[in-house]
Each structure stands twice: as structure tokens, then as C-alpha cells.
Amino acid sequence: MHDVRKPSAALYLPQRRTIPALQQAVQFCKGCDLYKHATQAVFGRGARKAQVLLVGEQPGDQEDLRGIPFIGPAGRVLDQALAEAGIERDMVYITNAVKHFKFEERGRRRIHKKPGMGEIAACRPWLEAEMEAVQPEVLVALGASAAKSLAGKEIKITRDRGKLFPHPYAKSFIATVHPSSLLRIPDAEEKKIEYARFVEDLRFVRQQLTSQ
Fold this sequence. Notes:
By secondary structure, the protein is an alpha/beta fold. The chain is built from 8 helices and 8 strands. Helix 3 (73-85) packs across helix 8 (188-211). The longest helix has 24 residues, at 188-211.
């Protein structure tokens, strides 16, 4: 049972838990304070019965303005890596652990600020509803925040990256890095190596689909 003393999106979920109904209802969510400053909630997009459900951390600046997940620089890296791994976009549903953009203002720029565990926990009912609606074969956590939302503190990216775990909402669960982390690598050669590792993680995801 939900603890009413803690912020949560649970009260804002619609009775019908279809993706279209959830997409409409999320815009009225006040489950945590992030809604106060974000332009809008950014819900997941993709195939309604996708084989792969990818979960990032939160929407960024461009996603917040347009209402679509993974359309900024990190999204372009992800799209390229998915293509190289042989995962077609119609196989995928993409969302975030937190649906509102958390940021701090620096002049005219809005700079990403990492969501706290309380905000991740408050938003988890939306993610659970997405997983129930999509029923993916494989869940993929992109980065530490998504891994914590999906599997708690038991999963650590540095230790468990690319490993296969059971999960109540999918046949398999895999954690890897967030594509935005690749953009922050200053050394070109290191960036190339880490990108190749990321593609390899996604190829492993693809292999799970083939073997199931």
C-alpha cells in the first residue's frame, strides 16, 4: 500500500491504464514538485507492445519543450547505436524514470540536474503502468537513475553492466550506460571505445530477443 505521507504519482494514474490514457493523465500529475517548473510531462513513446522497453533518467531541455523523449543529442546517439545493434525502432518503447525535467538556470540556459531518489520513487507508478501496458520481453536501464528505479540499489552499472537479471515486468532486465555519458567523454579515442561497448550491450539485448 502506498504511504500517503510520501510524494507519489499514484493518485494521478487513470483508471484505464492504456498508453493513450496514461499520456493524457500524466500532464496533470503533481506527484512531486518537478511539475512546477517543467514545461510539460514527457511520457514514453514507441510500439504499444514493444519487445524492448528502454528507460532513461529524465527528459532534457529539448524533450521538455517538445514533449517527446530522447530527441536531443543523447537521443541521436541512442538511435545510431540501436541501428548498429540491429534493433529496429518498431521493436522499442522509450521512456524515462522521471517524467518532468529537473534543471537549474544558468543565464538563459537550463542545465540538467540529477533527480533525487524521492523524485524517482514518486514517479515510479507511471513507469510501472507503462511496463504493465507494454509488456516487453526485455527491460533496459540506461544509466544509474533508471537502474535504481527498475531494480533498486542492488544493481550498479559499473559492476552489473551487460548482465542478465530477472524482473517482474519482463523476461529479462539489462543495465547499461546512458548515451549522454558518451557525449561527455572528452578524449576521442576513449569515446569511440565506450560507444562500441554501448553498441555491444544493445547487441546483447537483441540476442535475448532471438533466443526467446
